[in-house]
Every structure is written in C-alpha cells, then in structure tokens.
Amino acid sequence: MERVTFRQFLGRTVKYENLPVQVSPALRRGAWISWPVLVLTGLWFYYLPGGEVLRTEGFFRWTRGWQAGTWSFVEQNRIPFLAVNLGVLALAVLLLALTRGYRLAPIGLHAALFILVVYAALSTLFALFLLLPVLANLIAWIVIIAFIIASGIFGTMLLLAIMRR
Amino acid sequence: MNTQPVTRITPIHTALLLRQMVAASGQDMPLAHSLARRAGSVVEYARAERLEIPVIGSAPLFEEVRLVTRTRPAWALYNLSRDPLYLAGRFPVPARHLRRMRRMEAAGIQFDAVYVAHELPDDFRPGQDPLTLQVLAPEPPTQAVTMANHLGLATDRILSVCAALAGAPFALLATAGAGISAVLRDPVLMGALVPPGVNPDPGVPAIWFLLAAWRW
Q: Does B112 or B71 have the greater pLDDT score?
C-alpha cells in the first residue's frame, strides 16, 4: 500500500480560503478593456499635450489658461505618466498569466484586477479632462458655424420670398 | 431489504459515525501493548500543546474505498493515497484547521496513514454514480464568491460611468456578473497509528484518531 504520512499530507495542502474563484464577467471585460485604455491614454499623455494642432485658440478665454496649465503639467511629467501606464500594463499581462486568462483566481488577485480597472478608468477620466478645453471650444465653434449656416439658409429663403413678390 | 434507520449526520456526531466507518464490525480489535503505548504518547504530546486529538477506536487499515450508505447523506472513506482530491494536487483545508494540524506536526505527532471521509451529495446513488473529483471537491469559499460578485458589480458601475463619459465603446461591455451557487459538504480527516516497526499495510491493526472535521 502506498503510504501518505501526516507530514506528506500537510505538504500538499492549500488554504481553503485561497481556493481560486471564478472571475465575474464584468471584471474580466474590465481587465481586457484596460489594455487598450492604458496604451491609448499613455500615448495621449506622451504625445498630444506637445502637439500644437489641438492648442486652443480660445473661443472661451478661460479654457486657454486651463489648457496651458494642465497640458504643460502633463508635458513636463509625460515620461512618468507613460512609465506608470506601461508598468500597470505589465501588471495586466502578469495577471493574465496568473488568472488563467482572467477566468479563475484567488480573491486577492480579483482585488488586483479591480485595481487595474479602477486605474484604467481614472486614466480615461484624466485624458478626458485634458481634452475638455478642446471639446468646449469645438462645441462652441460647431454652434457658431451651425448658426451661420442656418442664418444663410434663412436669409436666402427670405430673399427668395421677397423676390417672388 | 435494508432495515437500518436513516440518520441525519451533524459534525458533532461525526466521531461516532467514523467509529462505525473504520471498524466495520462495530467492535474494537485487541491491541498490541507497543501500539497502545504509542497512541498514549500521541495523546500526551497533544495535551502538552493544548491540543485535543480524539481517539476514534481501533481497527485494521484498509486500502479500498469504503462507502457508508446507511446514513443520509452517504459517506466515502478513502486512504489518502487513493483520494481523488489529494491526487488532484492540492488538498484544501480551512486555515484554522491547517494551523491546528501544523501545530500537531510541529509537536512531533506523526501518523502512519491518513484517511479522509467525504460527505456525498444527497442525490448520490451508490453503485450507479461514479465517485469523481467533481463529486468530492468542495465548492469555492462562499465569502470569496460573494466578494468576487461585489467586485464584478463595482466594475460594472465603473464601466457604466466610463461609458456615459467616453461614449459607446464601453456601453456594450458593461453587464452584470453571474452569481455562483455554493453547495456545502463535510470532509473529515483521520490519522492512523500502527505498531512500531510495522508497515502500514492493509489488515494491520491500527489506532485511529480524528484529526479535523469541518463544514466548508
């Protein structure tokens, strides 16, 4: 008879509380989404604040100061921003391996996955925050152009109506 | 026709049940003096460490799977060397019981053979259903499953907020996590001591101890 002694048994035990648990579908999707989000926001922090194309030419004056302040801050710190994003991306890759494709993991790794998702969400919000001056001015310009076009159409129709009389 | 009464087992009564399990005849067998001394020293070591290791009784070792079907639910008693859960690689034990058993080992208490009794599902049909790992393995810890579901719901909310702020790419991806049900079973661990200098082979008389019993 093959022997399994008490010592051998203890050597092959695992804490029940650490048994892997199925990762919820939402958390799994969040972890996958964090990959492109981290790459895109990393590139955004690195390249875009330095680009002159999106520099606001100030329809709203307050956006100029806002953009100048936030963008120069990001521009000065873009390497740390990119490094942190890439570090978190490396963590995402490591977690992918440890959790069998974000499917099954001890609860501690679930928490790590959640932190990954939260960081990706915060990165997204910060990237959007940097884009707000551009968006605000873009919307303002769209409204102005739409108003000009509408005025042109209305003026033309008015002119045609007067000419028919 | 089986005239044995069907009884509901609770962990408190497990030791009595195990006595029936290990001693198929229901009676203790005569013991060699050396084995009784060895068992006595285990009890003394345990007492010195303020541990209690109840003695189940004396019965010969066995190798085959022993099914106890007179009870409801039924039980399967394995030598660990044949236990599917142990052979799967890692045997899960609640942290509290693991600590207690490690204290036993640190105190110098050793057993020549270890057996485990698994409580079988209520709908298990002896002789018809196979004793697979799926039948014996515990469900994941309920607390961890609950926590995983909470994290899933929180992620769902985060994705919804991001979807609202950043647009469509997130919208398709935000759905609720699925719940996981948990079915509870009881395993019981037993250690057996054989006389000094004797191999723990089937049929060798042994003293059986209750090492741990828990509800998942």
A: B112
